Design the sequence.
């Protein structure tokens, strides 16, 4: 039997080789199939990524264009605002000049009226004198007529008396003529004064109309300023509301953001807690973002108002609720300045227990009244 094995020609191992080669071929085909499928999936994924990238690039291009348009619009608005400010300054200067002119016209009118009254008094005196002279002339004329009848039979002495009386009558007539001339001159002066007074009153009315127009322009310019500030107040509200979303102890009351003091400070203290400092940092970030968008000539401030509850202070470093509320407001203001808010855009006040938002006297009401309020407004 051993001879038989040693004499084998090796054909018995061939089926094993064939099986191994078949298996290797099948594995190779499977691996190639896996690579092909993987490449197909990868190509599909890359194609989708390319589409997404293209869409993102389109969105970036659109956003860039929108940003460019907004920047251009902001530049245009800034230029228009500068022009309006220049017009406002010119209108204020013109208003001041017209006010001075109106004052001068009023003084002129008063002076003319005083002169008119003086001339009226002089005219009345002259008319009284003229009436008295006319009476004397009538009496003298009557005497002359009576004496003329007796002149033919009179002697030389009587004729001399009649001649003297005639001379006196002539002098009286001359005085009357002079008085009439003075009255005529006074009437001419009165007419001239009346004409000047009418002209001054007309100029005064014209100046008043111009002042009214300037006042209207000033009011419109102020209204535009207020509208611009209200626009930025809306932006401030949106930015701060977004950054403080989800905070339970922060609420909006009218145009103010109200922080309960318990969120920022320990009880009866004015040292801000770490959590409170984080809240104030969010407020500072929103204010800094808005401040970069407001033109420099729009006058605005962030008002920081501190409030306390109605419970009296019984101990500690603070003498009253005013001291406590003021110290807390100042602590918040210092933190805002440290977080980058400009000092010239901040004002603060301590209100004590005034203006409570909760009228009761429960612990929950007291907690609501212990608060810090932020408000974007004009100085």
Sequence:
């Amino acid at each position: 039997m051993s001879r038989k094995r040693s004499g084998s020609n090796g054909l018995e191992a061939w089926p094993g080789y064939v099986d191994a080669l078949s298996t290797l071929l099948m594995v190779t085909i499977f691996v190639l199939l896996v690579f092909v499928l993987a490449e197909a999936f990868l190509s599909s994924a890359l194609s989708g990524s390319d589409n997404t990238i293209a869409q993102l690039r389109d969105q970036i291009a659109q956003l860039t264009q929108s940003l460019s348009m907004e920047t251009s619009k902001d530049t245009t608005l800034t230029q228009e605002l500068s022009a309006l400010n220049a017009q406002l300054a010119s209108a204020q200067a013109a208003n001041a000049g017209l006010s001075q002119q109106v004052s001068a016209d009023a003084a002129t009118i008063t002076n003319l009226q005083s002169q008119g009254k003086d001339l009226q008094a002089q005219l009345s005196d002259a008319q009284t004198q003229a009436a008295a002279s006319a009476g004397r002339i009538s009496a003298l004329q009557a005497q002359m007529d009576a004496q003329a009848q007796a002149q033919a039979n009179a002697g030389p002495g009587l004729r001399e008396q009649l001649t003297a009386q005639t001379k006196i009558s002539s002098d009286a007539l001359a005085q009357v003529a002079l008085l009439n001339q003075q009255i005529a001159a006074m009437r001419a002066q009165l007419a001239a004064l009346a004409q000047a007074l009418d002209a001054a009153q007309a100029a005064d009315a014209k100046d008043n109309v111009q002042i009214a127009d300037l006042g209207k322009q000033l009011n419109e310019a102020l209204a535009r300023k207020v509208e611009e500030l209200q626009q930025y107040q809306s932006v401030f509200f949106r930015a701060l509301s977004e950054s403080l979303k989800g905070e339970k102890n922060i609420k909006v009351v009218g145009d103010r953001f109200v922080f309960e003091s318990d969120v920022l400070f320990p009880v009866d203290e004015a040292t801000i807690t770490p959590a409170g400092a984080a809240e104030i940092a969010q407020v500072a970030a929103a204010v800094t973002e808005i401040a970069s968008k407001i033109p420099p000539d729009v006058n605005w401030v962030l008002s920081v108002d501190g409030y306390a509850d109605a419970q009296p202070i019984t101990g500690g470093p603070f003498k009253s609720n005013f001291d406590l509320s003021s110290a807390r407001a100042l602590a918040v203001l210092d933190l805002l300045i440290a977080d980058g808010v400009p000092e010239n855009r901040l004002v603060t006040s301590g209100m004590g227990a005034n203006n409570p938002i909760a009228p009761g006297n429960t612990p929950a009401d007291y907690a609501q009244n212990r608060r810090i309020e932020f408000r974007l407004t004009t100085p």
About this structure: The two ends are 119 Å apart (CA to CA).
